[in-house]
């Protein structure tokens, strides 16, 4: 998660997070496909106008998901419940209700992904953690603990890959289920436990106590533009709900 | 048992969850070919792995909040590795984590054994289904589809989530890396030797 230098990325991460989760909650409560479509279009407009998305980026990112949502829409339309049969063939049974539901859910998932992308493509992880400390009162112990832990994602990924290759070179054929899980997870976890112990000791040895009384390199604050964005986005959503 | 977390436990919880999150990513690539073969309902049997972070971390650390934090941190891996399911993945993590946490909360965080671990796997599946009903329209499927999927996911949560977590943690304990954590401490207090399971 990195900032992309757009106007949206200058907003306070906590504020942005809360506003987007609120809009996603609204999307969950809505049962009208047309309204869902409108709220999704708002996200696309925000993306193009203030989040620095180009049309190419948008297509590249959203197209694979769109195919997935067409699939979900199809599954719901054919396997969903409903009374008024529109079309029936073999075990596929499309009703007006199920088609409506399929469209609704497909668009809702698309909306989720787009609002999620608006957040993840414009937010820097470090700034977000700092903002969680200052705006949402997260304990620094947890914020820095998580920052330290998240740095290990690429390392664990390459370790897992290495183990897979090491197994293959010795002629192990990958099985499925619990056994395959144990084979890779155990070394990964035991190394992880050792690493975590060393990190914790290193942090404490450098005087990290996890209390709030400490100095901060960056202190994200709330500015007028945060209020502006929150009011504008929630306002537009409310207007759409009333209007449509 | 102290309820405040020390630094060692915080970092352990996060790192183990991150490791689980990385395994989840690998599991997802395994899931796609299998679901193409046996269909989404059949592939629901693989669901349990996605909720294993909670029982593993809660079983080792044994503190309120451990199960919830573990699942959220594991879900955050998906967000941070650039999957644009991003925020929704995090929300599912919150629902699964709340389910898993409930299993330990109803026993007042005093029972940590294979049964509560399995219960936490099952409740994580229920939590996941609650999210699916609210967000993904699971309730719009025919009742048979709905209950079948829920049933399969609960069974998978019990076996691949709870039971497998127990096996993983016991195996980890035998390597000795967990000796300074609550799980082994409580075993030593109860006087079962060095805290290792018998026969090892």
Structural class of chain B: mainly alpha
Low-pLDDT stretches of chain B are none
Could you name the ranges of chain A where pLDDT drops below 50 across 5 or more consecutive residues? Answer: none
N-to-C series of helices and strands of chain B: HHHHHHH
Order the strands across the largest sheet of chain A as they lie in space: 1-2
User: Number of helical runs of chain B?
Assistant: 7
Strand content of chain B: under 5%
CATH class category of chain B:
Mainly Alpha
Mean pLDDT of chain A: 88
- Give the overall shape of chain A, derived from the CA principal axes: flat
First-to-last CA distance of chain A: 35 Å
Instruction: Please give the radius of gyration of chain B in angstroms.
Output: 17 Å
Average predicted local confidence, pLDDT of chain B: 87
Say how many strands of chain A there are: 2
Biggest chain pair interface: A-B, 63 and 60 residues
Task: Kindly report the CATH topology of chain B.
Answer: Arp2/3 complex 21 kDa subunit ARPC3
Computed CA radius of gyration of chain A, to the nearest angstrom: 23 Å
- State the assembly state of the protein chains: heterodimer
> Mind summarizing the main beta sheet of chain A?
2 strands, antiparallel
From the spread of the alpha carbons, the general shape of chain B counts as globular
- What count of domains describes the coordinates of chain B? 1
Structural summary, described in words:
The complex is a heterodimer of chains A (244) and B (200). Chain A has 9 helices and 2 strands. Chain A is mostly helical and 244 residues long. Chain A has a two-stranded antiparallel sheet. In chain A, strand 1 (85-89) and strand 2 form a beta hairpin. Chain B is an all-alpha fold and 200 residues long. Chain B has helices at residues 7-43, 53-61, 66-80, 86-105, 114-135, 143-175, 182-189. The longest helix of chain B has 37 residues, at 7-43. The interface between A and B is large, with 63 and 60 residues. Chain A: It is found in: Membrane. Chain A: The chain crosses the membrane at residues 6-30, 37-56, 62-80, 101-122, 227-243.
């Amino acid at each position: 998660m990195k900032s992309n230098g757009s106007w949206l990325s200058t907003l306070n991460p906590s504020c942005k997070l809360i506003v987007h989760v609120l809009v996603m909650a609204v999307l969950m409560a809505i049962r009208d496909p047309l309204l869902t479509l409108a709220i999704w279009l708002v996200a696309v407009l925000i993306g193009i106008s203030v989040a620095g998305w180009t049309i190419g980026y948008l297509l590249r990112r959203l197209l694979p998901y769109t195919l997935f949502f067409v699939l979900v829409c199809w599954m719901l339309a054919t396997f969903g419940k409903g009374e008024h049969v529109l079309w029936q063939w073999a075990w596929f049974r499309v009703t007006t209700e199920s088609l409506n539901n399929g469209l609704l859910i497909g668009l809702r998932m698309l909306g989720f992904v787009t609002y999620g992308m608006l957040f993840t493509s414009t937010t820097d992880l470090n700034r977000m953690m700092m903002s969680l400390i200052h705006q949402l009162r997260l304990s620094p112990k947890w914020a820095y603990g998580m920052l330290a832990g998240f740095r290990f994602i690429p390392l664990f990924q390459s370790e897992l890959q290495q183990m897979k290759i090491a197994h293959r070179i010795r002629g192990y054929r990958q099985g499925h289920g619990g056994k395959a899980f144990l084979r890779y997870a155990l070394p990964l976890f035991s190394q992880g436990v050792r690493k975590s112990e060393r990190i914790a000791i290193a942090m404490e040895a450098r005087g990290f106590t996890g209390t709030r009384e400490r100095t901060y390199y960056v202190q994200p604050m709330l500015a007028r533009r945060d209020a502006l964005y929150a009011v504008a986005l929630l306002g537009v959503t409310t207007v759409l709900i009333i209007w449509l | 048992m102290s309820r405040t977390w020390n630094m060692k436990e915080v970092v352990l919880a996060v790192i183990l969850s991150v490791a689980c999150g990385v395994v989840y990513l690998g599991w997802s690539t395994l899931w796609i070919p299998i679901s193409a073969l046996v269909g989404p309902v059949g592939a629901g049997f693989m669901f349990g792995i996605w909720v294993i972070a909670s029982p593993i971390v809660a079983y080792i650390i044994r503190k309120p909040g451990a199960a919830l934090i573990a699942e959220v941190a594991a879900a955050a891996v998906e967000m941070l590795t650039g999957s644009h399911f991003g925020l929704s993945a995090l929300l599912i993590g919150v629902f699964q984590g709340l389910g898993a946490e409930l299993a330990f909360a109803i026993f007042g965080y005093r029972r940590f054994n294979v049964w509560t671990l399995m219960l936490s796997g099952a409740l994580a599946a229920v939590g996941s289904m609650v999210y699916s009903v609210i967000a993904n329209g699971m309730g719009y499927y025919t009742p048979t589809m709905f209950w079948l999927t829920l049933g399969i996911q609960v069974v998978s949560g019990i076996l691949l989530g709870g039971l497998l977590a127990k096996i993983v943690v016991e195996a980890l304990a035998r390597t000795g890396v967990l000796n300074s954590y609550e799980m082994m401490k409580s075993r030593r207090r109860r006087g079962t030797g060095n805290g290792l399971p018998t026969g090892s």
